[in-house]
Design goal:
There is one protein chain. The chain is mainly β. The protein has a single domain, classed as Neuraminidase. The chain is 0% helix and 41% strand. The chain contains no helices and 26 strands. Strands 1, 7, 8, 9, 10 and 11 form a 6-stranded mixed beta sheet that branches. A hairpin with a 5-residue loop joins strand 12 and strand 13.
Length: 367
């Protein structure tokens, strides 16, 4: 376990050139945007079907594999629900120590198969901090339970907002975590704080030797409240991030780079900071979960109440505008479908009948 209170060495921000300018619509890709992968762009097709309903302030989808169960975190109760292979919802267990308040509580989930066991990782808010723990997944599909939590990372500053909370293992086998500034924007530029950062760590919470700064968990800095992480097929990392009053962001994340907050929001074209590949007015997005499925990024939007399909070059198209309310998370479903998790019972939405729900929709090539 590594504590966030340990001071890290000063970071050297990588300078990337990007030159997109602000507009009142999603902006075009910057000159520094990556070339497209050649994969066919995808879009939702047909009417989404309900996979599960009656969830309470759900936050994260964790699919354990085709034919296995899916775990869903409930932010305020601290409960991890199991969606069984037969489509039944049941409680797998409650994560000890969750102290939900505002945007904090039981947030992101991830899993790791190690030796003869599966470990479930959880990002949570406690009475004193934000932290990451892991628990052994016990039992069988349809009757899973959770072992006692083991701390992976503790001491992250918490607040009623900007808690980040997404955790995912990358293709390199390292655990990545989004950490918000916890309401103190200067933390995002402070090399001695782990808040306002995207972190990269070993499965046990140590700093990998090839991180940008020796001994530091910080992978990138200058973030306000990132909540989406996804990799494309060549292993490039992308993130979705809440802006303040003007721009939400979709960023290509590179090691050691500075994404500007609080000195820049959206595309500022300032030397030393990386501009987003795409940005949206905050009323159109407020992005949370992010998934890469069959060549396209799909981004959940809370305040925007829509699903954004984003291409690797930053071009984007909205779907389901207002149809399902707030969308909290997205994940690849079985057979190349897309799963969407609504977030209307989190205190900021207008719950519909059956909320909150897990939905499945098919995908088809564009054109």
């Amino acid at each position: 376990m590594r504590r966030a209170s340990i001071a890290t060495a000063a970071l050297t921000a990588a300078v990337l050139l990007a030159g997109c300018t602000a507009a009142r619509q999603p902006v075009p890709p910057s000159p520094g945007a990556p070339a497209t992968t050649g994969a066919q762009a995808m879009r939702p097709v047909g009417t989404p079907t309900v996979i599960a309903s009656g969830l309470e302030a759900p936050w994260s989808i964790l699919r354990l594999g085709d034919g296995d169960s899916t775990l869903i975190s409930e932010r305020d109760s601290g409960v991890i629900m199991e969606l069984t292979p037969e489509g039944r919802l049941r409680q797998a267990g409650t994560v000890p120590g969750v102290a939900a308040s505002g945007e904090g509580g039981l947030l992101g989930l991830e899993s790791l198969a190690a030796d003869d066991r599966t470990l479930v990782y959880a990002h949570l808010t406690t009475d004193s901090d934000n932290r990451i723990v892991r628990m052994r997944l016990e039992g069988r599909p349809g009757s899973y339970s959770l072992g006692s939590p083991e701390a992976v990372l503790t001491g992250l500053a918490k607040a009623g907002n900007h808690d980040g909370g997404r955790i995912k293992f990358g293709p390199d086998g390292m655990l990545y975590a989004t950490v918000g500034d916890a309401g103190v924007s200067d933390r995002a530029q402070d090399p001695h704080s782990l808040n306002g950062k995207i972190l990269r760590m070993t499965p046990t919470g140590e700093a990998p030797e090839d991180n940008p700064t020796a001994g530091s968990l910080v992978y990138s800095l200058g973030h306000r409240n990132p909540q989406g992480l996804a990799w494309n097929e060549d292993g490039t990392l992308f993130a979705a991030e809440f802006g303040q009053d003007t721009w939400d962001e979709f960023n290509l994340i590179s090691a050691g780079s500075d994404y500007g907050w609080p000195l820049v929001e959206g595309a500022g074209g300032r030397k030393g900071f990386v501009d987003p590949l795409a940005q949206w007015p905050t009323a159109d997005a407020s992005p949370s979960g992010l998934a890469y499925v069959r060549g396209t990024f799909f981004m959940a939007s809370l305040r925007g109440e829509r699903l954004w399909a984003v291409q690797p070059d930053g071009t984007s198209t909205p779907y389901f505008d207002g149809e399902f309310g707030r969308i909290r998370d997205v994940a690849e479903g079985p057979d190349g479908t897309l799963w969407m998790l609504t977030g209307n019972t989190d205190g900021r939405g207008d719950p519909m009948a059956g909320d909150d729900r897990l939905l499945q929709v098919g995908l088809e090539p564009v054109g």
